[in-house]
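Complex record, three chains
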Amino acid sequence: MSLLSLTDLTVRRGTRTALDGVSLTVGVGECVGLIGPNGAGKTTLMRAALGLLPATGTSTLAALPLAERARIAAWMPQTREIAWPVSVETAIALGRLPHLPRGARPGALDRAAIDAAIVRMELEDYRTRTATRLSGGEQARVLIARALAQDTPLFMADEPIAGLDPAHQIATMKVFADLAREGRSVIVSLHDLGLAARHCTRLVMLQAGRLVADGPPAEVLTRENVERVFGVTAYYETTPQGPVFQPMEVVR
Amino acid sequence: MRPSRLISLTVALAIAGAAALAQPPRRVVSVNLCTDQLALLLAAPGQLVSVSRLAHDPDSSALHRRARAIPTNGSGAEEVYLLNPDLVLAGTYTADATVRMLRDLGIPVERFAPARSLEDIPARLAQMGRALGREDEAARQIAAFRAELAALSDPPARRPRAALYYVNSYTLGDRSLAGAILNAAGFANVASETGLTHGGTLPLEQLVLLAPEVIVKGRDYPGQARAEDPLTHPALRALERTRVVGTLTDRDWICGTPLVLNAIRRLRDLRLSMEAGR
Amino acid sequence: MRLAATLVALCAALFVLSLVTGYASVPAGQALKALIIGDGTPLSVVMREIRLPRALLAAMIGASLGLSGAALQGYLRNPLAEPGLIGISGAAALGAVLAIQTGLTLHFALALPLAALGMAVLGVLLILALAGPRGGSITLILAGIAISALASALTSLVLNLSPNPFAAADIVFWMMGSLADRSFAHVWLALPFMALGWVMLARLGRGLDALTLGEDAAQAMGVHLPRLRLALVIGTACAVGAATAVAGAIGFVGLVVPHLLRPLVGARPSALLWASALGGAAMVLATDIAVRVALPDRDLKLGVLMALVGAPLFLHLIYKTRKELP
């Protein structure tokens, strides 16, 4: 069963084609890493898939009614915005909105989801702190926890680990991998190809709005692909501790 | 110019002015609504050559029909000077700059204070009579005014309490022409109960609590303004024992001329009809 | 809930205090008795026809302005958004003045709130178009200045062209607002539109909460943004338009009240909506009492006192938010 299926998804911005005929199906248990250089169309792909951008082609997610979509897919945008000085717990609890009927207060199930998200993102000590006074990385973790609290079968995040310290980058990628193992689907865009190679079950490589490679990390992060798409040489090895990927030199 | 020459010029002008006044003026220009009215009442035919613009306004000018025959002016010094008058009639509230400039140009200006009581009316008539050289006519009209006023001022058995109520919640007290009209017609002005003698703001609340038997509203102006809202406030209608008298035309009330007798007569008729209705 | 109880109690106390405050000094007990019994005496007329509608309007207008301020701020995610400051009240006043001066209101009383509402809609749409989805402070304030200036210039022009000699003096009323000598006619004229506005704005809480995390996140949480925007525009225009139509433009309520109450509701936009409605009612009631106590024999305009409190706070907010200004 797949939660997200894109067919020939195309986004035009003026005369430029930001996303060019991408077809893609994400199945249960997959942790998909979306990679590509700046401007390749990663954000556009995810937003169009969610129906947040006008696009041609089809997306099973975008076709859903808003309320239903919100119970199926959680989305953490790249712009990390917390407009008001709410507490960390309040910000995370916003993730339960799609599950609450109008005017209802959070029930036991909601509390459990919020607590689980807080534990997952190691934010127990932050609960009552004011979210807007946290550092950028801490805010990012709060926003990931917010999306986790939405407790959806599909989890989508746009560069969630940018700006996090190494320990939290690894911990967060492990959370995503765990989500996939639990039987959910994850789509996450990122620039750290090393973390992508280690924690994603599948990589989707974009270049100039086109899908250029799609498959297990070892098949996508080939020397030719990395050189052609990113313009770098890289070191890639499968070690006893898992795959190691390290970009080395700029070729262009 | 040397100071001595300036002085001699001023003296010469003053003598010329006095000489001109010895003869009745032949080209008189009025720049104030109330001097318009007084002059229209007293001037010899052809003597008054221009009246203020308001004199033609039927809402403001009690003598607007008579004024129609005479051209109007905008009350500016330049315009008035070009009319070549030998006397200008102005109010004490006419712009000082205008009056000073006209006098500097050698034109005599006679200023009239607004009337604040009925006694001011014969005084203004007499002043205008002197200014126009029409003392006899003035004396005749003063006598007629006094006689008619006396006839209207029979002491009432009971003075009903009344309020004058204008735009912006303004009221007038006993020491105003309107207050004098109200008194002469046999009413007691409630403004004096609040300590207002000349005039001032009477908040709607206070007016309602005073509960006068009659509220005489000022005239209705064209167009609309929020300042007029208190005049139509439902609280005034809710007062059971109060009669609100709408637009008693104001043109007879504005200036101290014998025409205020019309206003007194109308108010007196109202009082008599109230007595009869009891 | 404690906050709600406190605010309700505060509003109730101020409402009673407003009823016993007036130009004519009457013992409070006697005044309230005259209000309840209504025996046709002059005092009961004062209580029922002058003071009661005045207190009701103060509460209604305060609630409308507080609620609109909180909603606008929630939507634009900017604490400087306030119906008066960004020109919505000014636009509504222009609508009201046009309806009065064209004589439309003489034939059709509802023309007054409707015209104010119409111009308010125009004002909100202009602000939203100019300030963009995430109302940045600079654009918001500049757009507000422009709309206010245009609206007040046109209002002055219309009033100056009026044949009524007193119309020009009304400019102060329309710019500063006053509740002097309002009647139940004004209550009935404004209430239906305000109530509609309150309902529309009160229902925005959920969407505004979600918007805390930005438009994308809110949409992904199931918030229908175009619908929310429409409800915001119409709700604000109804509430502010009706308030301005009967009492002139009263500024700063929607700025001061949400700012004071935000920390008390944990900064949640949804909780701030009802809190600001109650707080706004309390503030306008208190101010309207103050204008009568401070200068009993003049019609001191509400907006004057409001600006004395609000403008320093506005300056403080600008100072505080200047870091985020580009």
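Note: The radius of gyration of chain B is 22 Å.
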